[in-house]
């Protein structure tokens, strides 16, 4: 590997987010370095500067960080104290530990959001079945139990309808918190970026459609969303980014309820709800994240088509993904396909597709057709 | 480097065209391999599977090609007989030698275009000053002398106004041909793709603006071009692709003259006149090239904005390109910047910028502002 010409950004983790960041890095002349567990990983397949090592080991992280102009993350599992140590060494880590902890620890997140007045469901740290029963006495069943750390894609979340169900979750020994079940109408997400010098931008509010706790579809912009509610959602997300001192991207997942918006989860990195921006916005979320962590002025978040729909590809039973390319590309020359370079396993996110146009129903049908065919080989 | 999951495409050469192809390969799940002269090269900096070697050596090429599902090119300098040998070994080389020779050898190109009735200027193979004088006697001065092989970006082209000037060019010993000087109104380019099974698509006709023989600006679509003339230009380009058996991309550079279109040059690879498609078309030329060489159905060439302008960044005196990022990004959040990871040298193509919008004058001014500032540090 030759010496760098452009700024070097180190990404800890080498999944599909780091992989897609490479597309933006190539354009910006940013030299991407990834810390991977294995050379098989999604991003390691497409990047020249791959370092192998364990992100839980501080010495590995310190060695990795040498020569990087900024350090950022593909996932939220790096120990908070290691991030603090890297910053103490003088490395520019974005987001910083004090911000990132809100995406790592759901109880810390709820405490802080409650303190700044962002809309949250009733919630409480709990340790025993009695705690859950008391919480349910005040807020009713079901009670949503969440692992305080480490959950994603529906893992680490249990909707409990009785003390018996809660007892089973508690028996796993995972530190938990309780949240009231929110009877939502739909789920929205707001993706914002904030740079170290404090510039913020917000992408249009999108609707996310989940199945079994996994996002399957993103509709941009959120269909039929009232302009005032959209602006409110963006204000909430920008305010959280500001108050928490986020540097880089922040995705705020929200429930739309009959009585208004409720914040569900935070992520501080490029996010599945923003994959549509690669083909559908003037600045992709991956470019935006690089600009933010390098403290460069942020790019236009405007859409390049009136309606954009992203659908995730989930692994099916047939591992031969590429044999299904021909039909999808011939059927719809306007569809954009993104494969993550991952072996197909049932239910695994292995890619996504994006469709654009003027009419939501038509665009959504096209995205679905491609996603179902690529995932399952089924012609819908 | 781990074993491949997706199709493997080998690119001979590791310049900016291979570099930008990597962005498309990442999305398609195509594993790109490049043959580079050095690990410093533009594409070698952003690709995991880099092989070092000399593209003029057949044994190197054969070793490089092993395991590739398709072989293609970053440049047109690979010896025709080596390409033929690789195809003889059973490798899928696109474009093939019989097509590519028309982009390698200008006299072969003119013979073939004349045979299929594509519009050419008067031309002739020449060897002596007497040949040039005879040609000038029929077609007038100036006479354009061109190196039959190896020229690009204005190199290998001499506009001679006298027998004396022609004699100086002949004295270099380079094999030459003569063409009549075409009094053109402007230059147009048509980029088409053709796949091995014969599907063709054409991008909108663009206007290219040159300075000192180097393309500095591309306007998409070509402003004020009559619809019939645009269709004619596309028909000419698609017909050449078909007649020559091109597989992959074909860029046809044309002169627009008072008496109609004249074909100037051919390139069989992604081309500078198509860089606008990365941000400005639904399918970038790089994705289109990969789809074509893998014989996948081709993608939509439609534009994602009414007007798109691309401006090249040429190296200036100040090597510190990145220090000028801040102003350009802050000034225009909608501008797209592409750096090629090359050391700055005066006059060298080191990147490009793209702007979009509805109004040509405004979009062109934005692209120029960014290009001049990034290239020269001058605020226009």
UniProtKB/TrEMBL annotation, chains A, B:
Entry EC no(s): 6.3.4.18
Positions contributing to ATP binding: 106, 146, 179-182, 187, 264-265
InterPro entries assigned: ATP-grasp, ATP-grasp_carboxylate-amine, ATP_grasp_subdomain_1, PreATP-grasp_dom_sf, PurK, PurK_C, PurT/PurK_preATP-grasp, Rudment_hybrid_motif
Domain of life of the organism encoding this protein: Bacteria
Nucleotide-binding as UniProt keyword: yes
First and last residue of the signal peptide: none
Top EC group: ligase
Domain ATP-grasp: 110-294
Record field: catalytic activity: 5-amino-1-(5-phospho-beta-D-ribosyl)imidazole + hydrogencarbonate + ATP = 5-carboxyamino-1-(5-phospho-D-ribosyl)imidazole + ADP + phosphate + 2 H(+)
SUPFAM superfamilies associated with the record: Glutathione synthetase ATP-binding domain-like (SSF56059), PreATP-grasp domain (SSF52440), Rudiment single hybrid motif (SSF51246)
Pathway: Purine metabolism; IMP biosynthesis via de novo pathway; 5-amino-1-(5-phospho-D-ribosyl)imidazole-4-carboxylate from 5-amino-1-(5-phospho-D-ribosyl)imidazole (N5-CAIR route): step 1/2
GO CC list: cytosol
Biological process per Gene Ontology, one example term: 'de novo' IMP biosynthetic process
Sorted UniProt keywords: ATP-binding, Ligase, Nucleotide-binding, Purine biosynthesis
Any GO MF annotation of the entry: ATP binding
Keyword match Nucleotide-binding: yes
A Pfam family hit: PurK_C
Gene3D superfamilies, per database record: 3.40.50.20, ATP-grasp fold, A domain, ATP-grasp fold, B domain
Function text: Catalyzes the ATP-dependent conversion of 5-aminoimidazole ribonucleotide (AIR) and HCO(3)- to N5-carboxyaminoimidazole ribonucleotide (N5-CAIR).
Similarity remark: Belongs to the PurK/PurT family.
Subunit comment: Homodimer.
Name assigned to this protein: N5-carboxyaminoimidazole ribonucleotide synthase
Lineage per the UniProt record: Bacteria, Bacillati, Actinomycetota, Actinomycetes, Streptosporangiales
Record gene name: purK
């Amino acid at each position: 590997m030759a010496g760098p010409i452009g700024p070097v950004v180190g990404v800890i983790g080498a999944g599909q987010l780091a992989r897609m960041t490479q597309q933006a890095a190539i354009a910006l002349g940013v030299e991407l370095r990834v810390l991977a567990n294995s050379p098989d990983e999604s991003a390691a397949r497409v990047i020249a500067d791959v370092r192998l090592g364990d992100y839980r080991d501080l010495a590995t992280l310190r060695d990795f960080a040498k020569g990087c102009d900024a350090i950022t993350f593909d996932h939220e599992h790096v120990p908070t104290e290691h991030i603090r140590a890297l910053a103490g060494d003088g490395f520019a880590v974005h987001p910083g530990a004090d911000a990132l902890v809100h995406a790592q620890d759901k109880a810390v997140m709820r405490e802080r959001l409650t303190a700044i007045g962002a809309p949250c469901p009733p919630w409480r740290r709990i340790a025993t079945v009695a705690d859950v029963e008391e919480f349910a006495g005040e807020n009713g069943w079901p009670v949503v139990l969440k692992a305080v750390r480490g959950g994603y894609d529906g893992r680490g979340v249990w909707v409990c309808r009785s003390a018996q169900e809660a007892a089973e979750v508690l028996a796993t020994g995972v530190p938990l918190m309780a949240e009231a079940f929110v009877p939502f109408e739909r789920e929205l997400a707001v993706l914002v970026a904030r740079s170290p010098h404090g510039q913020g931008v917000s992408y249009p509010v999108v609707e996310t459609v989940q199945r079994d706790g996994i996002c399957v579809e993103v509709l941009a912009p959120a269909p039929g969303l009232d302009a005032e509610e959209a602006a409110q959602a963006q204000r909430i997300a920008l305010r959280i980014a500001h108050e928490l001192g986020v540097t880089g991207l922040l995705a705020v997942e929200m429930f739309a309820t009959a009585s208004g918006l409720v914040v569900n989860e935070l992520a501080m990195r490029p996010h599945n709800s923003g994959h549509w921006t690669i083909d559908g916005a003037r600045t992709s979320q991956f470019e935006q994240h690089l600009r933010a962590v390098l403290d460069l002025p942020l790019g236009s978040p405007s859409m390049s088509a009136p309606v954009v729909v992203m659908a995730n590809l989930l692994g099916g039973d047939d591992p031969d993904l590429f044999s299904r390319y021909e039909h999808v590309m011939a059927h719809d020359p306007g569809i954009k396909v993104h494969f993550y370079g991952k072996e197909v396993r049932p239910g695994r996110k292995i890619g996504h597709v994006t469709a654009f146009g003027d009419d939501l129903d038509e665009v959504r049908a096209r995205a679905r057709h491609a996603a179902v065919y690529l995932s399952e080989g089924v012609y819908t």
